[in-house]
Specification:
Blueprint (H helix, E strand, L loop, with lengths): L21 H18 L5 H4 L11 H14 L1 H7 L1
Pfam family, one: PRA1
Subcellular location: Endomembrane system; Membrane
Function: May be involved in both secretory and endocytic intracellular trafficking in the endosomal/prevacuolar compartments.
């Protein structure tokens, strides 16, 4: 009866941390540039909450039209708030 042999595996290359890889640095650089560009398009918060510019819509169609316009105009602000 013989004893089973054990196979020893060694890693010749040291594992490089994920954050240190060129691919991660490129991804992070592009991601941060995109965030900066997006935030540069936000509208002033005071304009978003200005009560003087709010009036009761005349109809449901008018209300829906205003909602669509506000979503497009303030979309970056809404995303930042969420």
């Amino acid at each position: 009866m013989s004893t089973p042999s054990t196979l020893t595996v060694t890693n010749q290359q040291a594992a490089q941390p994920l954050i240190n890889t060129p691919a991660f640095r490129t991804f992070f650089s592009r991601f941060s540039t995109s965030i900066r560009d997006g935030l540069s398009q936000r509208r002033p918060w005071a304009e978003l909450v200005d009560r003087n510019s709010m009036a009761r819509p005349e109809s449901l169609a008018d209300a829906l039209s205003r909602i669509r316009k506000n979503l497009a105009y303030f979309k970056v602000n809404y995303v930042a708030a969420v």
